[in-house]
Design a protein that fits this description.
With about 190 residues, this protein is mostly helical. It is about 65% helix and about 0% strand.
Length: about 190
């Protein structure tokens, strides 16, 4: 089972529902990762117990934004992130028949999987690579070339990203790595060129 939100029910949903996992990944920016990955569970509750890409894509944008904004808000920027989730669901409906898992199950190789993910709203190069690493390391989704497509996040034994969090201890190691990277970036920025 995935260990991303710190909430057993939310983590079970992430493990079992590919759409929930994708929504969590979309939301994983500018808020604590545990909140981002618990939000799909909270959204499911607010949607009367069902996450459905077609239903979310077809919702009135203001109604979806209201669901994201209800306390506790699902994101720091509820309206814009509701829009991004709705756009991602529309791509899932239009390109994958509403089946979020088809994004990876239809990919012939890691290169195609990377392209599939980068075509989703909210998935830039780095986020797409991290998600491929998460799929490969924790869910056994390993099309040919997935390691290259996930680089450097697919590296075994690394603690670079959400792809490496499988326990409270791993979460601490990932946070330490990110703090180290931020410190090094600040040091480079303050060093005269």
């Amino acid at each position: 089972m995935l260990y991303l939100s710190g909430d057993e029910a939310a983590d079970a949903l992430l493990t079992e529902d590919p759409l929930a996992l994708l929504i969590g990944m979309v939301l994983d920016q500018q808020i604590p990762l545990e909140r981002a990955f618990k939000s799909p569970f909270d959204l499911q509750v607010r949607l009367d117990g069902r996450l459905d890409a077609a239903a979310i894509a077809a919702m009135d944008p203001d109604e979806l934004a209201a669901l994201f904004s209800a306390k506790p808000a699902l994101h720091r920027f509820p309206k814009s992130m509701a829009g991004r989730v709705q756009e991602a669901c529309a791509v899932i409906v239009n390109s994958y028949g509403g089946d979020a898992a088809a994004i990876w199950s239809s990919a012939a190789d890691g290169k195609e999987l990377l392209a599939n993910l980068k075509a989703l709203p909210g998935f830039g190069e780095q986020k797409a690579r991290i998600f491929i690493a998460l799929l490969g390391k924790q869910l056994g989704v390993r099309p040919v070339g997935w390691e290259h497509a996930a680089a450097p996040f697919g590296e075994p034994g690394s603690f670079r990203s959400v792809a490496d969090i499988d326990s409270p201890g791993a979460l601490i190691k990932v946070r330490q790595y990110k703090q180290q990277m931020k410190s090094e970036a600040r040091a480079r920025a303050s060093t005269p060129g």
